[in-house]
From TrEMBL:
GO terms for biological process: phosphatidylinositol acyl-chain remodeling; phospholipid biosynthetic process. GO terms for cellular component: endoplasmic reticulum; mitochondrion. Belongs to the 1-acyl-sn-glycerol-3-phosphate acyltransferase family. Residues 87-212 form the Phospholipid/glycerol acyltransferase domain. GO terms for molecular function: acyltransferase activity. The keyword Transferase applies. SUPFAM superfamilies: Glycerol-3-phosphate (1)-acyltransferase (SSF69593). The keyword Transferase applies. Keywords: Acyltransferase, Lipid biosynthesis, Lipid metabolism, Phospholipid biosynthesis, Phospholipid metabolism, Transferase. This is Phospholipid/glycerol acyltransferase domain-containing protein. It holds the Pfam family Acyltransferase. Transmembrane segments: none annotated.
């Protein structure tokens, strides 16, 4: 009986964070929508500045749960600048938690509100979030022949012209690496061999289109590119073999004790501009990631496993940066739900906000 209770409590650890994160979404959308209407006649930079601040508030609440609530230990390696910059962020992709890793780094540079994502097209249909991510500067892209280069360039140019701060997150692999999906890994390795590129073990072969378009469009606006390699400690089985990285629910259930994050800051002048050369450069960067992950997961020396080479910094996020956002958004949502009119508005926001958002992204995104 006691064991069953313990197991049940463990399984519902993620219920509170999920309830708050999803439950406050209509409140956030209402606040954003009000500002969108009020700023309609103002220059776009005013809208964007406040939108970035609102986004920072919501994502700070996200980090309250994913860092402070879980108690995960963040270990940083390499060279993360202390000050905010206009950057392209390139990372390996293995979990639904990966987009939060970008938040984890951005908040430590006071750039959390400036994070914008290149996202796969199917995510635009997410209720409320799908439309808002596009409004905040996210770019939805389709794979291969359906990739719309002109649309991506147009949107990036609009933000550059407005002087919008950019912390643009791209996952060049295009899909998550899962060691259990052997067909996906084999296809990726076969593609690399066909292209005459080295075959990779712990990452998928990166695709160049979105990265090249982003860099080519923003090269005069960027300060640097961040090459980020992430490993979740504990993502190995009893035989020491790598297994699937934790999902958001598993992460919130405190199943990941440490996240290891290696950052290489690359000055833009050291990145080739021509697409063929950049394709080789990007693959070389993923070869470096692969070597780091081979060391992390497969090193024959137990002392060298579960860490990246070099010194690490244990970076703890202060509650002062996250708790106020949690209190503000949860308090506003509770207040909204305390009245009948508020509850009706809340439900209508979920329903009509989703419908209008889906209609908007079907036309614009």
């Amino acid at each position: 009986m006691l064991l069953s209770l313990v197991l049940h409590m463990h399984s519902v650890r993620c219920v509170l964070p999920a309830a708050v994160l999803l439950g406050t979404a209509p409140t956030y959308v209402l606040a954003w929508g009000a500002w969108r209407l009020l700023s309609a006649l103002l220059p776009s930079r005013f809208y964007q500045a406040v939108d970035d601040r609102l986004y920072c508030v919501y994502q700070s609440m996200v980090l309250f749960f994913f860092e402070n609530y879980t108690g995960v230990q963040i270990l940083l390696y390499g060279d993360l600048p202390k000050n905010k910059e206009n950057v392209i962020y390139l990372a390996n992709h293995q979990s639904t938690v990966d987009w939060i890793i970008a938040d984890i780094l951005a908040v430590r540079q006071n750039a959390l509100g400036h994070v914008r994502y290149v996202l796969k097209d199917g995510l635009k249909w997410l209720p409320l979030y799908g439309c808002y991510f596009s409004q905040h500067g996210g770019i939805y892209v389709k794979r291969s022949a359906k990739f719309n280069e002109k649309q991506m360039r147009k949107k990036l140019q609009r933000y550059i012209n407005a002087g919008t701060p950019m912390y643009l997150v791209i996952f060049p692999e295009g899909t998550r690496y899962n060691p259990e999906l052997t067909k996906v890994i084999s296809a990726s390795q076969a593609f690399a061999a066909q292209e005459g590129l080295p075959v990779l073990k712990h990452v998928l072969t990166p695709r160049i289109k979105a990265t090249h378009v982003a860099f080519d469009s923003m090269k005069d606006y960027l300060d640097a590119v961040y090459d980020v390699t992430v490993a979740f400690e504990g993502s190995v089985d009893d035989k020491g073999q790598r297994k699937e990285a934790p999902s958001m629910a598993e992460f919130l259930c405190k199943e990941c004790p440490k996240i290891h994050i290696h950052i290489d800051r690359i000055d833009k002048k050291n990145i080739p501009e021509e697409q063929v050369s950049m394709k080789r450069w990007l693959h070389e960067r993923f070869e470096i990631k692969d070597k780091l992950l081979i060391e992390f997961y497969d090193s024959p020396d137990p002392e060298r496993r579960n860490k990246f080479p070099g010194e690490s910094v244990n970076s703890k996020l202060s509650l002062k940066k996250t708790l106020p956002s949690f209190l503000i958004l949860s308090g506003l949502t509770a207040g909204l739900l305390m009245t009948e009119a508020g509850r009706k508005l809340y439900v209508k926001t979920w329903i009509y906000g989703t419908l209008i958002g889906c209609l908007w992204v079907s036309i614009k995104a």
